[in-house]
């Protein structure tokens, strides 16, 4: 059974619009969209101001750990137009981005990559738009 995930109503609306606007996609992109769509369908939607702290939302800055290599990374979950892997900006349409959305700190997420399945633990939510008053450092 999958863990409970939670997303804000505004993220839900924007992400559904993003999914519906995609055209001329490669097969891998279609799979990523299908995965994200399935996650959105099962997510508990909450008003932005009622979001429980500690859940990954759009524009969250997150510390994750690759459970296969032990490597730690800081990533920011962003919309595709803002994605830049070298800067740590991970698109919500990527396998990792779609897997992170809606999970809380302490959760282990898994996602498929060409060489198999990766597992990441969400170690910390460093910054989250809905519950932070200051910009991330």
UniProtKB/TrEMBL annotation:
<dbReference type="Pfam" id="PF01272">
    <property type="entry name" value="GreA_GreB"/>
</dbReference>
<dbReference type="InterPro" id="IPR036953">
    <property type="entry name" value="GreA/GreB_C_sf"/>
</dbReference>
<dbReference type="InterPro" id="IPR023459">
    <property type="entry name" value="Tscrpt_elong_fac_GreA/B_fam"/>
</dbReference>
<keyword id="KW-0251">Elongation factor</keyword>
<dbReference type="GO" id="GO:0070063">
    <property type="term" value="F:RNA polymerase binding"/>
</dbReference>
<dbReference type="GO" id="GO:0003677">
    <property type="term" value="F:DNA binding"/>
</dbReference>
<keyword id="KW-0648">Protein biosynthesis</keyword>
<dbReference type="GO" id="GO:0032784">
    <property type="term" value="P:regulation of DNA-templated transcription elongation"/>
</dbReference>
<dbReference type="GO" id="GO:0006354">
    <property type="term" value="P:DNA-templated transcription elongation"/>
</dbReference>
<protein>
    <submittedName>
        <fullName>GreA/GreB family elongation factor</fullName>
    </submittedName>
</protein>
<dbReference type="GO" id="GO:0003746">
    <property type="term" value="F:translation elongation factor activity"/>
</dbReference>
<dbReference type="InterPro" id="IPR001437">
    <property type="entry name" value="Tscrpt_elong_fac_GreA/B_C"/>
</dbReference>
<feature type="domain" description="Transcription elongation factor GreA/GreB C-terminal">
    <location>
        <begin position="54"/>
        <end position="127"/>
    </location>
</feature>
């Amino acid at each position: 059974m999958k863990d409970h995930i939670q997303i804000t109503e505004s993220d839900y609306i924007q992400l559904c619009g993003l999914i519906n606007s995609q055209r001329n996609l490669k097969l891998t992109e279609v799979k990523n969209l299908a995965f994200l769509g399935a996650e959105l369908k099962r997510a508990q939607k909450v008003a932005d101001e009622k979001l429980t702290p500690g859940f990954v939302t759009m524009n969250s800055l997150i510390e994750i750990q690759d459970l296969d290599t032990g490597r730690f990374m800081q990533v920011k979950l962003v919309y595709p137009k803002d994605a830049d892997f070298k800067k740590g900006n991970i698109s919500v349409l990527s396998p990792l981005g779609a897997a992170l959305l809606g999970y809380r700190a302490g959760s282990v997420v898994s996602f498929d990559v060409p060489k198999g399945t990766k597992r990441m633990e969400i170690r910390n939510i460093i910054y989250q738009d809905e519950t932070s008053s200051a910009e991330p450092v």
